[in-house]
Amino acid sequence: MTHPGTLLRTLMNDHALMCPGAWNGLVARAIASTGFESCYISGGATANASGYPDIGLISLTEMCRTIREVANASGLPVIVDADTGYGEIESVKRTVVEYDRNGAAGMHIEDQEFPKRCGHLDGKVLIPTEEMAAKVNAAALNKVHPDFLLIARTDARSVDGLDAAIERGNAYREAGADMIFPEGLHSEEEFVEFANGCPGLLLANMTEFGKTDSIHFDRFSEMGYQLVIYPVTMQRIAMGAITNCLEQLKADGSVDGFVDSMQTRASLYEMLGYTPGEEWNFPK
Length: 284
Description:
Elements: H1 4-14, E1 17-20, H2 25-33, E2 39-41, H3 43-49, H4 60-74, E3 78-81, H5 89-101, E4 106-110, H6 129-141, E5 149-154, H7 157-160, H8 162-175, E6 179-182, H9 188-197, E7 201-205, H10 217-222, E8 227-230, H11 233-252, H12 265-272
Parallel strand pairs: 1-8, 2-3, 3-4, 4-5, 5-6, 6-7, 7-8
């Protein structure tokens, strides 16, 4: 069977990819059924779904369970957040192996100290470049499959400036990263400058309510970014709708006011490939 990292690399060689975030199998099925070719698992969205903030509280075991669920339900190559690698060098080695064995196409690790902060918040603290490069190198040397996509994220833009982010990106690429993820860039101009200063495969984060201007996917592709993640977009949409409907249900005592905005039973069954009365087969 083709490794998901191989499939992801084949797709990226042809065109840039949009990667909406999934935090469970049902959302993953929705992403696949809508026609997307890859998806993303955010550590923040996974933590939020468990009732935690994005400060690195989700364990490796919990994340691997989510990887299996999302990869199996979607059938897509999945990029996965690994935060700071769940510890030091030995933990990073285990993470790259466990993520691959559980179905991920690739993962990214970041250069923050633990406990980490959301990449679009202030007050982040970075580990030294040499320490992060050692983590990247350890991950690269312990890949189960050579096509597993190892992505190094740097949060240096908001701490030490764009030049420092470019310098770190190049150091991580030299240490063995297949792709670089510059977090917290502000504008198209900064994305262009980073791409020019750190040539090679690049990932962009198009999140809402953060440091980055709203930029169209086509523009990211033009600027040289092969993957664009939308990590919490679908969760924010879902929770906005859930909160509004709960408030209306509490006030009205009835679902009549919002039943027309629900996914129907028939639509859900179609997305799941399920016909009542017929045998259902697991997605392949």
